[in-house]
Amino acid sequence: MTHVPSVIAALAVLPAAVAAQDIWKTTDPDHPWAFPADHWAHPAYQTEWWYFTGHLTTTDAEARRIGYQFTFFRVGIVPERPSLASDWATASLIMGHFALTDLDAGRHGFSEILYRPTTFLGGFGDPGDSLIAWSVAPAGTGGVWTLRWNGDRFDLAARDDTRGITLELSARPTKPLVFHGPGGYSRKGTRPGAASLYYSFTRLATAGVVTMGGERLGVRGESWMDHEFGSNQLTETQRGWDWFSLRLDDGRDLMIYVLRDRNGRPDFALGTLVAPDGTARGLTPEEWTLRATGAWTSDATGARYPSGWTIRVPGAALALLVTPEIRAQENVSDLIPGLFYWEGAVLVHDDAGQAVGRGYVELTGYGTARRPAI
């Protein structure tokens, strides 16, 4: 296990053409989607993640506001498990990130796991079994982290006793599944194959229990779920991305992303606007603008992130101001040297200052010249 972080780091810095070695499946614009089977893993592709974020409110009289992130990653090493007489032989790694943010108190807690899938450390289930992904908890914590699909909902569980945070949530979709890009083929650049297969549930009614600061709290709220997989989506010159998932009070949902080159300039961008009835429409970069309005510098890493944005989609009559609920929502890995990113809850106002929604923003590639590890 001591060499696992270096494996991830090596994958991160290898040029795409070298890392792929033509052994991974190319993203197919005509992928034959089949649900619920496609909620499970796709090991022929190099990289995959299941990602949940949401805003929760405690069910006690204080009604405290909490943001959360829960993610499982499958990082492919080779497409098939090596034929070795060892229980440690593996074709991939399983990584998990889990964060809870007390939005009223301004406290952010982050936990992570990183294992090779084995019968006793973690792995990925098969369609027909409710279990999508699982791993043992971080060192020093008993139990397991799990992601399940139970026919009409996702069930999430994670804990880190050292950091004093736990999560047990059920998230039931209240809007139809939507694809990003034609048929879920989400381009990440102009190079052939620079794409992922990508779908979301933009609204999930969420309820369960979290633990923070030694308190076990009932919660309810709303979440956003992404499932994305592909092989070498990023080009050799791309170094990071800004990604937004916004749920608006009028029932619409907005996803946009901007990939940046090694000089920090926008390299490729796309978006999706989801109507209240769940109808999705792709947005080209010409249909919207994104501008940073401020910045925040991390004491932990020295990375300087944009902090606050204006988003305009004139054709949809949207003029939005996006503001972090708290600035310090950076996740810094203890397991992978140099892996850090900003993942935070945000509020959305219109240009008159009226609150019109909330969401999450992810910022990667700031404060480092290295490509993201995933």
Structural summary, described in words:
It is a single chain. With 374 residues, this protein is mostly beta strands. The protein has a single domain, classed as AttH-like domain (AttH-like fold). The chain contains two helices and 25 strands. The chain has helices at residues 4-13, 16-20; strands spanning 47-58, 65-76, 92-102, 107-115, 122-124, 131-136, 144-149, 154-160, 165-173, 178-179, 185-187, 195-212, 215-230, 238-248, 253-261, 266-274, 280-283, 289-292, 295-297, 304-306, 309-313, 318-324, 330-332, 340-350, 355-363. Strands 1, 2, 3, 4, 5, 6, 7, 8, 9, 10, 11, 12 and 13 form a 13-stranded antiparallel β-sheet that branches. Strands 14, 15, 16, 17, 18, 21, 22, 23, 24 and 25 form a ten-stranded antiparallel β-sheet that branches. β16 and β17 form a beta hairpin. The protein is globular. The two termini are 19 Å apart.
Output the keywords.
374 residues, mainly beta, AttH-like fold, 13-stranded antiparallel sheet, 10-stranded antiparallel sheet, globular, disordered N terminus
Instruction: Give the N-to-C terminal Cα separation.
Output: 19 Å
Rg, nearest Å = 19 Å
Strand content: over 45%
Q: What is the CATH topology descriptor?
A: AttH-like fold
- Please give the share of residues in helix: under 10%
Average pLDDT confidence is 90
Count the E strands.
25
Structural category is: mainly beta
CATH class: Mainly Beta
Order of helices and strands: HHEEEEEEEEEEEEEEEEEEEEEEEEE
Tell me the domain tally: 1
What is the CATH superfamily label? Answer: AttH-like domain
CATH architecture: Beta Barrel
Major sheet size, sense and barrel closure: 13 strands, antiparallel
Show unreliable segments: 1-21
Silhouette: globular
Q: How many helices? A: 2
